[in-house]
Write a structure and sequence with these properties.
With 277 residues, this protein is an all-alpha fold. The protein folds into two domains: 108 residues; 146 residues, no CATH class. It has twelve helices and two strands. It has a two-stranded antiparallel ribbon with strand order 1-2. It is elongated and about 80 Å long. The relative contact order is 0.09.
Length: 277
């Protein structure tokens, strides 16, 4: 099977990509770059130079020899293989966002699966930044909880609103664990934290009347529904099968905001009962 030639990338595109991959704080080490070049059969012709210049020399030279960018693109794909970064999702999303901003000027994009895809060529910066700004603006108008606004980040909106929702719903479980000291997750965490068969870790009210108890039970069900519908689904479902549009993201994040406000006001009843506060 003949693979279609990908047109040569502008040298400024290659240079910018090399600088991202070689960043001091977040980029690959010199040894890692050498390994990546070796694994993609690209000659390391300038190994004595600084990291980004060394990588730039290797990729630019390979493109010139090939008269196309297929092997350069293959190097980028190999470097951003999700299996290589399975334990560092934040780095993967952040780096892919930066690389896609650069590649967009060549009409290319690296998907969440690490594979290259053809997109409409950009003449300006990535739309991800404007999406993040727009989402945050809408949420500010809704007066959402400040903890939710933390997830209106460009790197979480590279493709759509999927990861913003995922990370925001994760923050709910994190807050419950922080307030209670519990280590579990999901429905088990909710049951442990709010069950009032004995003194609960967290209480929304005095739990004296049937109405009080119904409110506590209802909140528990709301939390379980939030985790089951959004957090667990987004954690396991392929993004392409669980696309989230802006209006859906706004509604979900508003619900997460409500949950955060109720958690902030919840009484740490177990700690009070045990004299820890």
């Amino acid at each position: 099977m003949t693979v279609a030639a990908i047109p040569k990338l502008d040298l400024s595109v290659i240079e910018s990509i090399c600088k991202v991959f070689a960043e001091t704080e977040t980029g690959f080490t010199g040894a890692e770059l050498a390994k990546l070049l070796y694994e993609t059969n690209i000659q390391d012709i300038d190994s004595a130079n600084t990291k980004w210049k060394r990588l730039n020399s290797a990729l630019a030279n390979k493109q010139e020899l090939d008269r196309c960018s297929n092997n350069v693109v293959a190097f980028i794909q190999h470097s951003l293989n999700p299996a290589r970064h399975y334990n560092n999702l934040e780095w993967f999303n952040g780096t892919r966002f930066k690389i896609n901003q650069i590649l967009s000027f060549s009409g290319l994009n690296i998907g969440e699966n690490g594979k290259v895809e053809v997109i409409k060529r950009s003449n300006t910066i990535s739309e991800a930044a404007s999406r993040a700004s727009k989402l945050k603006e809408h949420l500010v108008v809704r007066n959402v909880h400040h903890d939710v606004l933390l997830y209106c980040k460009e790197e979480l909106l590279v493709d759509n609103y999927f990861h913003a929702v995922f990370e925001a719903t994760k923050s709910v479980a994190d807050k419950i664990r922080i307030k209670t000291g519990l280590k579990t997750d999901g429905a088990s965490l909710v049951d442990e934290a709010f069950s009032f068969k004995q003194v609960p870790h967290l209480a929304l009210n005095n739990l004296e009347t049937e109405s009080d108890k119904s409110e506590q039970k209802g909140f528990m069900n709301l939390l379980k529904g939030l985790f089951g519908t959004f957090r667990n689904t987004t954690a396991h479902a392929p993004k392409i099968k669980w696309a989230i549009e802006e209006i859906d993201a706004l509604d979900i994040l508003s619900l997460v905001s409500l949950v955060h406000r109720r958690l902030d006001r919840a009484v740490e009843a177990r700690k009070m009962y045990e004299g820890k506060i």
